[in-house]
From TrEMBL:
InterPro entries: DNA/RNA_pol_sf, Endo/exonu/phosph_ase_sf, Endo/exonuclease/phosphatase, RT_dom. It comes from the Eukaryota. It comes from Ananas comosus var. bracteatus (red pineapple). SUPFAM superfamilies: DNA/RNA polymerases, DNase I-like. Residues 359-499 form the Reverse transcriptase domain. Residues 23-208 form the Endonuclease/exonuclease/phosphatase domain. This is Uncharacterized protein. It holds the Pfam family RVT_1.
Length: 553
């Protein structure tokens, strides 16, 4: 008993992290019982509340302790292999389920252990974390030697998937247990599983291993953060152009690279060089000088807003004003990128990245529907899509229905809205029988199938070169989500058209035309006659004028 208490005391005093830990869980304490007085002898000043599961002889026993100034214990329940507490955070009342687990070593008890894990899942509330010594592997890679317990691994994996938990990887270690021999057997038996609710509450949860030479198991520390680390992203400031020295800085950095075979790779390296040079140069501008410069050009910038179109820069941090100002310097590299893109020999992986920003639609935005996604695209992809959209604009009017108005020069969506309003008023006033169908394309741009778009372009007579251009832009698309000003992990896109004003989104008009074709096809088959009404009073006048009006997008 005393030895077990001293072991817990040594653990709590061995690392400063335990002095600020909110919750600490122990497995296999070997204590048959823990009284409040005994707990105070090793619990410390901040870990003053606890729940325990007594040992069976010299095996098992669990101890979960926490800081009572931060949490209240709402409920607790125990099993043969687990101790679960439901804690309520005092500052906001949020609930957290902490399941402390010690799995059996005997093979005949594994099934009962897995059943108990299922029962814990059914009782968990709020953000849930399940941790401890499970005494079973989750993968064959969790042991440095071959294992014969494949069935236990498969059963354990099935349980984890069914209860919907995520295995949190250890950042700095692969195994958590050693048998201590000269040629040791290493295993990962100690794990931390978190629920989806926990991931949403603490998106930056990490698991680290701490050195502990006195035990065959490794101490694990779960760090749960709600904030996102700040990243100093590069952004070209417009007021830098007021300084004559910026011309030399950009010119020197741009010319510092030798020509490369791949124009896109060369262009990307030059942009990175310009970013580094401008970071160093702008750091030399004192805060007072920057503020003075902003005040001096305030009235100029105010006038510029009336004529200068400003857009948020993409991952490269360079707005369009940068290209306008330094065109004579960078035009050869830009045209090199366009030439390889024209010939279909370019790779846009590094120049077709984007950031997905969520713009709140209202002040108190809570759900995902309260945000509007906006894509900030790399300037190279933006330039290419802008050129393609300008070419498409010339012919688009003849390719689509005359009643489609979105992103078409000379057409206005408000006209179709007024026409629909007048038609409804006319039908109602004259008491004509008719059928009006309103279709809402929910997240229309996100659901576009690329294969269908490319097949449709080919069917409408677009050349193979044009479809190759569109395919290249779509296939090389990658995006990361901006959260609190910090970009997340980059992922490849598989469908949809990015929300970049009216550029590639003009292609959606061609997709929408297929809806009108289907209506006309059904009209010719006279299916509307039986679907609208059994009466012949509707007549062919209404049926023969099936029209698609696009008055929202």
């Amino acid at each position: 008993m005393y030895g077990a208490s001293m072991t817990i005391l040594n653990v709590l005093s061995s690392n400063p992290l335990f002095n600020i830990a909110c919750v600490v869980c122990f497995q296999e304490t070997k204590l048959s019982s823990i009284s409040p007085a005994k707990f105070r002898s090793f619990g410390g000043f901040h870990l003053q509340d606890f729940r325990s599961l007594n040992a069976e002889g010299t095996r098992g026993s669990l101890l979960t302790t926490w800081n009572p100034t931060l949490f209240d214990c709402v409920h607790e329940w125990t099993g043969r292999f687990s101790l679960t507490v439901l804690l309520k955070r005092k500052v906001d009342g949020k609930l957290f389920t902490i399941s402390n687990v010690y799995g059996p070593m005997a093979a005949n008890l594994k099934i009962n252990f897995f059943i108990e894990l299922h029962s814990i899942s059914a009782s968990s509330t709020g953000a849930w974390v399940m941790l401890g010594d499970f005494n079973v592997l989750l993968s064959v890679q969790d042991k440095n030697r071959p294992t014969a317990n494949i069935n236990d691994i498969l059963n354990f994996r099935e349980v984890v998937q069914e209860i919907g938990l995520v295995d949190l990887p250890i950042v700095n270690k692969s195994f958590t247990r050693s048998n201590g021999r000269d040629v040791p057997t290493l295993e990962r038996l100690d794990r931390v599983f978190i629920s989806n609710a926990w991931v949403l509450a603490f998106p930056r949860s990490t698991l680290h291993a701490l050195p502990w030479p006195r035990s065959d198991h490794t101490l694990l520390v779960l760090s749960a953060y709600t904030f996102i680390l700040f990243v100093n992203l590069f952004k070209f400031e417009s007021y830098w152009l007021r300084y004559p020295a910026v011309l030399d800085v950009v010119s020197t950095a741009w010319k510092s690279f030798l020509p490369d075979i791949d124009p896109v790779k060369q262009f990307s390296r030059k942009i990175e060089s310009v970013q580094s040079a401008l970071r160093l140069w702008s750091a030399g501008i004192s805060f007072a000088s920057r503020e003075q410069g902003k005040r001096c050009v305030f009235w100029i910038e105010w006038l510029d807003k009336a004529k200068e179109r400003r857009e948020g820069p993409g991952p490269d941090g360079l707005p369009m004003v940068f290209y306008q100002r330094f065109w004579n310097l960078i035009k050869d590299d830009i045209m090199g990128v366009f030439n390889t893109f024209y010939n279909g020999t370019t790779n846009l992986d590094k120049a077709n990245t984007g950031w997905l920003c969520l713009i709140p639609k209202k002040k108190e935005a809570l759900s995902a529907n309260d945000f509007r996604p906006i894509s900030l695209v790399h300037s190279v992809a933006k330039l290419i899509s802008k050129v393609l959209a300008s070419r498409l604009q010339i012919f688009l009017g003849g390719l689509i229905n005359p009643h489609q108005a979105a992103f078409i020069k000379g057409r206005h969506i408000i006209d179709n809205f007024n026409c629909a309003h007048i038609l409804i008023h006319h039908l109602h006033t004259n008491k004509h029988r008719a059928a009006l169908l309103k279709i809402d394309f929910e997240r229309a741009f996100d659901r576009v199938n690329w294969s269908f778009l490319l097949d449709l372009l080919q069917a409408r007579g677009f050349s193979p070169r044009w479809t190759t251009w569109i395919h290249t832009l779509l296939q090389t698309t990658s995006t990361s989500v901006i959260l609190n000003g910090t970009p997340g992990r980059i992922f490849s896109c598989k469908r949809g058209l990015r929300q970049v004003r009216g550029r590639l989104r003009r292609s959606f008009n061609i997709l929408l035309t297929t809806t009108c074709w289907e209506l006309w096809k059904e009209q010719n088959r006279r299916i509307f006659d039986s679907q609208l009404s059994r009466s012949n009073e509707i007549g062919r006048k209404v049926i023969d004028t099936v029209t698609l009006w696009q008055f929202a997008l």
